Amino acid sequence: MVERAPRRTLLLAAVLAAALGGCMLAATGTASATSIALDSGAGLPFTSTGTGGDCAASGSTVTITPVSAWAGPLAGSSWISCAQTGNNGIVLPNGSIVTVNQTFTVPTGDIGTGGTVDVFADDTAAVYLNSTQLIAPDLTPGSTCAPGIIGCTGQNMGVITLPSGLTGNNTFTVAFYQTNGDGSGADWAGSYNVDPSPEPGSLVLLGPGIMGLAWFTRRRKA
C-alpha cells in the first residue's frame, strides 16, 4: 500500500513549484539588450563655416573617396564630407569647420548602458554629445593630418566613450577642421547599448512568484 504525503506537504510543494515557475518565466520573458548603431554615411545633416563657398552652409553629407594616406573606412561606415573633398577633390580653405550631427533615440522606459564610437578625421575633429564636448580638436599641424587624437591615420583614431543613463532623443556630433590643406572629411563607427525594460507579462509573473516564495518561507519558520 502506497502512503500518501501529508496534505500540508503537498500544498507547500505546489506553492513552491508555482513560485519558482513564475520567477523562471519572468526571467525568460525579459527582452535582450540591443545596440543602436552610430556610423557615418551619406545623408547626415551638416553645417559649415569658413569653407569659402566650396560647400554649402548647410545640407546633407556625401560619401567621399579617402585620400591614400588616410585609414580605410571603419566597418559599417564611410568617409564623409560636405562635398567631394577627398582624394583629388576640392581643398577647403584652412580654418574651415564642417559640423555633422547624427541623432539616435533610446526607447521610452529602456535603460542606456553606454557605448563607444571610433572616430577619424582630417585634419582633426571635436566630438560632442547633446552639445557637451567629449573631446577637443588637436589643432597641431601634421604632415598628413593632426598628429594626436583625433587624426586620419591608424595611430590617430579617437575612441569616444558614451555615458550610461541616456534617455529619449540624443545627438552625436563630429565637427571636423581643415588646418593644413589637402583633403578633409570624417569617418566614425560605433554603437550605444540599451537594456529594454521588463515586459509587462514578466512583471505579472514575477510578482506572484516572489509572494509565493515569501509565504513558503514564513510557513517554514512558523
What would you note in describing this structure?
Helices cover 20% and strands 34% of the residues. The protein folds into two domains: 7-30 and 199-221; 34-195, Sandwich (Jelly Rolls), CATH 2.60.120. Helix 1 packs antiparallel against helix 2. The strands form three sheets. The chain has a six-stranded antiparallel sheet with strand order 3-2-6-11-8-9, with no helix packed on it. The protein has a four-stranded antiparallel sheet with strand order 1-12-7-10, with no helix packed on it. A two-stranded antiparallel sheet has the order 4-5. It is an alpha+beta fold. It has helices at 7-28, 200-221; strands spanning 34-39, 45-49, 58-60, 62-63, 80-81, 97-106, 111-122, 124-129, 132-135, 158-162, 168-177, 185-195. It starts with 6 loop residues before the first helix and ends with a helix. It is built from two helices and twelve strands, in the order H-E-E-E-E-E-E-E-E-E-E-E-E-H.
Q: What is the CATH topology classification name of the largest domain?
A: Jelly Rolls
Order of helices and strands: HEEEEEEEEEEEEH
Strands side by side in the biggest sheet? 3-2-6-11-8-9
Strand content: 25-35%
Termini Cα gap: 32 Å
Main pleated-sheet profile: 6 strands, antiparallel
Q: Enumerate the spans where pLDDT stays under 50 for 5 or more consecutive residues.
A: 9-29, 201-206
CATH architecture of the largest domain: Sandwich
Q: What is the overall shape?
A: elongated
Considering DSSP H and I runs of 4 or more, what fraction of the residues is helical?
A: 10-25%
Number of domains: 2
Structural class: alpha+beta
Helices, by number, come to: 2
Radius of gyration based on Cα positions: 27 Å
Mean pLDDT: 83
CATH C-level label of the largest domain: Mainly Beta
Number of strands: 12
